[in-house]
Design a protein that fits this description.
With 703 residues, this protein is mostly helical. The protein has a domain of 87 residues: Serine Threonine Protein Phosphatase 5, Tetratricopeptide repeat (Alpha Horseshoe). It contains 37 helices and 2 strands. Strands 1-2 form a two-stranded antiparallel ribbon. Strand 1 and strand 2 form a beta hairpin. Helix 3 runs antiparallel to helix 4 and helix 14 packs antiparallel against helix 15.
Length: 703
C-alpha cells in the first residue's frame, strides 16, 4: 500500500509538473431542504436592525492643558481637510469647517475657509449668505459691506443679496448708504417687488417726493420694457397719490393709464378703481361717465365686476332711471352674446329687439333690425323661414306705427317680398299686410297690384280670400266675380269657395246665377267637403221655398250616398216643409230609409234611424204606429270575438255589443233557434232555484 501511495504520489507530482491540478467539486450528499429556512428579506432586515443598535458613546475627553487642545484642533482640522480633499464641491463641508473655526473664535481662519470655498463655487448663494452673516454676527461691518458688494457684483440677479444688504445698512442707520444700494439695484431693472420695496423704504422716512419719482421711473420702465404692463401698478401709483391727498395727481395718473391702455387692452379693474376714486371725491357725474365708457367698450364676459359696481353705485347715488339703464344695458349685453353665438336664433333676436324698442332711439332700433334680417335661413324650406319672416313683419310695423315712416315701411315690405323664393314657397300674410298698408296710405292701385302679383306668382287660397274680402269691402262686385272665377279655376275642389261665391250671388239677388254655381259645384269630380256643399245647396233651396227642387236634391244626394244623416235630414225637411201631407211624407221617408238600411253593415246607423223614427212617432204618431216602431227596435246583446295582432298571432278575446233586429230574425232560422235555446236555459235556471228553496214553494202554496 505504501508503494502504491508512493507510486501514485510520484505520478501526481509528475502530472502537476506538466499542467495545473484541477480540484474536484465537492458533491452535496444531502439535498433535502434545511429545517430552518432563511430568506434574503430576513437577511436584509437583520442587517438593518443591527445598524440601529446603539453603539456605546465614545469616552468624553477632558482637555486639561494647551497641548491637548492643540492636539484636538489638529485632529479636527485634519478630519475637515480630509473631507474637503475627498470632495471639494460639497459646500456643506466647507460651511461646517468655517462654522467650527468660528465657534473657536478663529475668525481669520474661518474667513480664509470661506474664501477658499468661494474659489471653488462662487455661484453658491448659501455660501455668500453664511459668509456675510458671520461677519455681521461678529460686528465686522466693513467686512460685511465688502462681502455684500462682491456678492451683488458677482450675482446681481439674486434679490436676496440686495434685500439683506439694504436691510443691514438701514439697521445701521445708514439711510444714504441704503438708498445708494437701492439705486444700484434699480439700475438692473429688477422685478416689481423690488421697486415697491424701494418706495416703502422712502415712505418710512417721509420722502414722498422721492417715492413719487420712483413710481414715475417704474411706470416708465414698464412702458419701455414690458410688452403687456400690469394695471395694478398704475392703480397702486394712483392710490399712493390719493393716500397723500394729492387728488389732482391721482386723477392724472388714472387718466394717463386709460390713455396708455387704450381700447385694445382695456381692463375693468382700472375703471372700477378710477370710478371709486371719483366717487370718493363726490364726482358722481364723472363716475357715471367712466362706467358707461367702460361698459360700451369692454367685452361682456370680462365686465361682470364692472356691472356689479355700477349697479351698486346707481343704487346708492342714482335715480330709478339710472338703475333701469343699468339693467337694460346688462340685458343688452346678454342678448349680444346670444346672437353672436348663434345668429340664426330668431327668438333671441325678438327679445333683443323688444328690449331695444323700449329703450333706444329709432336709429339704434333700425340698426338691430338690419342685423337681424341679414341672417337669412341657409335652407330654402318654409319651416326654417316661419320664425324669420316675423322679423320683417315686426320691422315694417315698427316703421309704420312707431317711427311713422311710410316710405321706409314700403321699402321694408318690398325688400322682403323680393327676398322670398316664390317659386318654392311664399307667405300670404306678407302680401296681405303689404296690401293693407297701401290701403291705409290710400294707395289702392298699389294694393291691387301687389295682390295681383301675388296671385300671379304664387296663388294660394289665403291670397284669393284676402283679395276677395278687400274687394267686397270696397263693394267692387264685378271684381269679386272675376276673382272667384280665378279662384275656382285654381282650386275647383274647394267647397268653401263655391259656397261663398253662391252666397255672394244670393246677396246680390241673382238667384239663377247662385243656383248655376251650386250645380257646377256638385258636378265637380273631386271635392274636399261635399257634405257641406250639399247642405248649403239644400239650405239655399229651402230659403227660396223651392220644396220640389229640395226634394229632387235629396233624391240626387241619396243616389250618391245612403248615409243615415241624409235620410234623417230628408225626413225632418218633409216634416217642416208643408202643412198638408207632411206626416205621411215624413213616415214614408222613414220607411224607405229603413228598407235601404237593412243591407247596411253599420248597425249603429240603422239604430240611429229607428231612434229618430221613434221620437217622431212619439210626438206625432198613434198607438198603432208607436207599437209598430217598438217592434222594429233591435235587441242589444253582448258578444265576444277573437283578436289578432299585427304579426298574425293570437291577441286574446274582445267583448262588444251587437244589435239583432226583429226583421232580420224572421229571415234567419238560426237566430230563432238561438232565442229558443235562451228561453229553455232561463226555464232550467228557474226550476233549479225552486228545487233548492222548498220553503218558498210552501209559502207560495199557502198563500
Amino acid at each position: 500500500r505504501g508503494g502504491a501511495r508512493a507510486h501514485s504520489g510520484g505520478k501526481m507530482a509528475s502530472t502537476a509538473a506538466g499542467k495545473q491540478r484541477i480540484p474536484k467539486v465537492a458533491k452535496v450528499k444531502n439535498k433535502a431542504p434545511a429545517e430552518v429556512q432563511i430568506t434574503a428579506e430576513q437577511l436584509l432586515r437583520e442587517a438593518k436592525e443591527r445598524e440601529l443598535e446603539l453603539l456605546p458613546p465614545p469616552p468624553q475627553q477632558k482637555i486639561t492643558d494647551v497641548e491637548e487642545l492643540n492636539d484636538y484642533k489638529l485632529r479636527k482640522r485634519k478630519t475637515f481637510e480630509d473631507n474637503i480633499r475627498k470632495n471639494r464641491t460639497v459646500i456643506s463641508n466647507w460651511i461646517k469647517y468655517a462654522q467650527w473655526e468660528e465657534s473657536l473664535k478663529e475668525i481669520q481662519r474661518a474667513r480664509s475657509i470661506y474664501e477658499r470655498a468661494l474659489d471653488v463655487d462662487y455661484r453658491n448663494v448659501t455660501l455668500w449668505l453664511k459668509y456675510a452673516e458671520m461677519e455681521m454676527k461678529n460686528r465686522q461691518v466693513n467686512h460685511a459691506r465688502n462681502i455684500w458688494d462682491r456678492a451683488i457684483t458677482t450675482l446681481p440677479r439674486v434679490n436676496q443679496f440686495w434685500y439683506k444688504y439694504t436691510y443691514m445698512e438701514e439697521m445701521l442707520g445708514n439711510v444714504a448708504g441704503s438708498r445708494q444700494v437701492f439705486e444700484r439695484w434699480m439700475e438692473w431693472q429688477p422685478e416689481e417687488q423690488a421697486w415697491h420695496s424701494y418706495i416703502n423704504f422712502e415712505l418710512r422716512y417721509k420722502e414722498v417726493d422721492r417715492a413719487r419719482s420712483i413710481y414715475e421711473r417704474y411706470i416708465l420702465f414698464t412702458l419701455l420694457v414690458l410688452v403687456h404692463p400690469d394695471v395694478k401698478n398704475w392703480i397702486k401709483y394712483a392710490r399712493f397719490e390719493e393716500k397723500h391727498s394729492y387728488f389732482a395727481h391721482a386723477r392724472k395718473v388714472y387718466e394717463r393709464a386709460v390713455e396708455f391702455f387704450g381700447e385694445e387692452h382695456m381692463d375693468e379693474h382700472l375703471y372700477v378703481a378710477f370710478a371709486k376714486f371719483e366717487e370718493n371725491q363726490k364726482e358722481f357725474e364723472r363716475v357715471r361717465v367712466i362706467y358707461k365708457y367702460a361698459l360700451d367698450r369692454i367685452p361682456k364676459q370680462e365686465a361682470q365686476n364692472l356691472f356689479k359696481n355700477y349697479t351698486i353705485f346707481e343704487k346708492k347715488f342714482g335715480d330709478r332711471r339710472g338703475i333701469e339703464d343699468i339693467i337694460v344695458s346688462k340685458r343688452r349685453f346678454q342678448y349680444e352674446e346670444e346672437v353672436k353665438a348663434n345668429p340664426h336664433n330668431y327668438d333671441a333676436w325678438f327679445d333683443y329687439l323688444r328690449l331695444v324698442e323700449s329703450d333706444a332711439g329709432a336709429d339704434a332700433v333700425r340698426e338691430v333690425y338690419e342685423r337681424a334680417i341679414a341672417n337669412v335661413p341657409p335652407i330654402q324650406e318654409k319651416r326654417h323661414w316661419k320664425r324669420y319672416i316675423y322679423l320683417w313683419i315686426n320691422y315694417a310695423l315698427y316703421e309704420e306705427l312707431e317711427a311713422k315712416a311710410s316710405k321706409r315701411t314700403r321699402q321694408v315690405y318690398q325688400a322682403c317680398l323680393e327676398l322670398l323664393p316664390h317659386k318654392k314657397f311664399t307667405f300670404a300674410k306678407m302680401w296681405l299686410l303689404y296690401a293693407q298698408f297701401e290701403i291705409r296710405q290710400k294707395n289702392l292701385p298699389l294694393a291691387r297690384r301687389a295682390l295681383g302679383t301675388s296671385i300671379g306668382k304664387c296663388p294660394k287660397n289665403k291670397l284669393f280670400k284676402g283679395y276677395i274680402e278687400l274687394e267686397l269691402q270696397l263693394r267692387e262686385f264685378d271684381r269679386c266675380r272675376k276673382l272667384y272665377e280665378k279662384f275656382l279655376e285654381f282650386a275647383p275642389e274647394n267647397c268653401t269657395s263655391w259656397i261663398k261665391f253662391a252666397e255672394l250671388e244670393t246677396i246680390l239677388g241673382d238667384i239663377d246665377r247662385a243656383r248655376a254655381i251650386y250645380e257646377l259645384a256638385i258636378g265637380q269630380p273631386r271635392l274636399d267637403m261635399p257634405e257641406v256643399l250639399w247642405k248649403s245647396y239644400i239650405d239655399f233651396e229651402i230659403e227660396q221655398e223651392e220644396y220640389e227642387k229640395t226634394r229632387n236634391l235629396y233624391r240626387r244626394l241619396l243616389q250618391r250616398t245612403q248615409h243615415v244623416k241624409v235620410w234623417i235630414s230628408f225626413a225632418q225637411f218633409e216634416l217642416s216643409a208643408g202643412r198638408e201631407q207632411r206626416l205621411p211624407r215624413c213616415r214614408q221617408i222613414y220607411e224607405e230609409a229603413n228598407k235601404a238600411m237593412r243591407s247596411c253593415e253599420e248597425k249603429e246607423e240603422r239604430v240611429m234611424l229607428l231612434e229618430s223614427w221613434r221620437s217622431f212617432e212619439e210626438e206625432f204618431g198613434t198607438e198603432a204606429t208607436k207599437e209598430r216602431i217598438d217592434k222594429l227596435m233591435p235587441e242589444k246583446i253582448k258578444k265576444r270575438r277573437k283578436l289578432q295582432a299585427e304579426d298574425g298571432s293570437d291577441a286574446g278575446w274582445e267583448e262588444y255589443y251587437d244589435y239583432i233586429f226583429p226583421e232580420d230574425t224572421a229571415n234567419q232560422p238560426n237566430l230563432k233557434l238561438l232565442a229558443m235555446a235562451k228561453l229553455w236555459k232561463k226555464q232550467q235556471q228557474e226550476s233549479e232555484a225552486a228545487a233548492m228553496d222548498p220553503d218558498k214553494d210552501i209559502d207560495e202554496s199557502q198563500s
